[in-house]
Amino acid sequence: MDASMEINQKSIRVLMFPWLGHGHISPFFELAKKLVKRNFTIFLCSTPANFISIKQKLINEDLTEKIHLVDLRLPSLPDLPPHYHTTNGLPPHLMSTLKKAFAKARPNFTQIINSIEPDLLIYDLLQPWAPKVAAEKNIPSVVFVTSSATMFSYMFHTFRYPNSVFPFSCIYYHDYELARMVKNQELEPIEQQQKDNTSVKLCFKRSSNIVLIKGFKEIDGQYCDYISSLTKKRVVPVGPLVQEPTSEDGNSQILTWLNQKSKGSTIFVSFGSEYFLSQEDREEIAHGLEKSRVNFIWVVRFPKGEKLKLEQALPRGFFKKVGERGMVVEDWAPQAKILGNPSIGGFVSHCGWNSVMESMKIGVPIIAMPMHLDQPLNARLVEEVGIGLEVVRDKDGKLDGEQISEIINKVVLDKEGESIREKAKKMSETIRVKGDEEIDDVVQELVNLCKTRSNVV
Ligand code: UDX
Which atom of ligand 1 is nearest to 334's Cα? Predict the structure, then answer.
């Protein structure tokens, strides 16, 4: 029996270290589930805020023996304010909360690695110091990028704030040049580009030759190849890593309401787990929904402690005007379950990468309204791939309700949008057939990395 098999049978112990926001922990959790199926044992770092919900998921899915939660004892990401045209990164008070969290992260993480002694570390690109801690114990590390390969490529070229805590302070779509640059081969050698790119540089210096990325060849495979060619590392998309809705995800009121609507007649409107809409945005979106000819479920979130009632947050008379056509839900709704309902014909989304992947996997076309970070790039990708359209803000960052209603109608109902709806359906079929196979490409390499370590120890 060769050494890799021995290790395989023993079950490789992997410590996973995501960035602390829900949008990162969630793909790590999905990757963990896939590795567990291939005989790995997982230790997943979490924060107190996410601990309870992940623990519950583990119990529901009977995974408590295979995925062990490790509490980092850190605060979760603070609420983020509405972002549209900011160029200065996060506001100072949020920066200071993050800095405090980071100050505790390293000693706590070091303790964890010492007590677990894993065979392998899989860490988030946004935790670039983690592989150094692992290297001190001779533990190999592999970086896992939870954003799109498009975004990751982009980071190489526009890294402007080397000293900021948050590695990519502000990216928005006027900067979107990558596709053109790739096409015209205008890129400088990566060493040049990376000069100031502390985070990415650290990650690449200390980790193995494999880069795992949440994605799917058919969508942004060309960008994976592109990063591979620049970094000389193997960039492997490990699938959409989308959560499957469970029976516990139900919200009977929403689902009963949805079940009364006809097929493809309704849109889901939601902007992820971290951001909040400004009052102006809410008003334009409300206007757009009211003018459109679709039914809708709209999730409206407020920062913690903001004591606004839905009636105050939305334009006067909104509920009366839309009547039975609309349902507004405060704070949170079971997104994956809603998107999977046959009545859903479109998704108005900020284009967080998880939301894009969920929508693609289910085959729901996207009306993109990006706000910040990778979202504008993801929105562009959605248009490029042909599974949705973007609502473009004016030069002052304002949305236009009239345009919103036109785009919703086009994507969901009108003949003009037929090819988009078809493309979304086709993409979903392809993902379902091929998406989960991609991780098999890399499992043996992970085993081999651990084998190298076991030979050294
Ligand atoms: C963050 C960043 O904002 C995003 O740009 C990046 O791509 C990932 O990290 P977030 O804003 O939360 O993520 O958006 P997204 O990536 O779409 O993840 C949200 C997740 O929460 C999805 O899995 C979605 O299904 C779930 N969700 C969100 C719900 O189930 N219900 C909700 O009401 C809101």
Answer: 30
Picking from 51-55, 138-142, 144-148, which range would have the lowest pLDDT averaged per residue?
A: 51-55
pLDDT tens for residues 68-81? Answer: 999 887 765 555 54
428-444 tens-digit pLDDT: 999 888 766 778 878 88
Q: Is 119 part of the annotated catalytic residue set?
A: no
Question: Is 23 a pocket residue for ligand 1 (Cβ < 6 Å)?
Answer: yes
The pick from 20, 22, 361 for probing ligand 1's pocket by mutation, whose C-beta has the most ligand atoms within 8 angstroms, reads 22
Ligand 1 pocket: which of 22, 219, 273 to mutate (most atoms <8 Å of CB)? 273
For the CA of 146, the nearest atom of ligand 1: 8
- 3-state class of 270 per DSSP? strand
Distance CA 203, CA 128 (A): 5
* Closest C-alpha residue for ligand 1 atom 30: 335
pLDDT of residue 224: 86
What is the CA(357)–ligand 1 centre distance, in A? 10
How far is the centre of ligand 1, averaged over its atoms, from the C-alpha of 23 (Å)? 5
Q: Which of 22, 24, 83, 350 is catalytic?
A: 24
Pocket flag, ligand 1, residue 150 (CB < 6 Å) = no
- 124 is an active site residue: yes
> How far apart (Å, rounded) are the C-alpha atoms in residues 348 and 404?
10
Averaged confidence pLDDT in the chain: 80
Q: Which of 44-48, 150-154, 186-190, 376-380 has the lowest mean pLDDT?
A: 186-190
Q: What is the pTM of this model?
A: 0.82
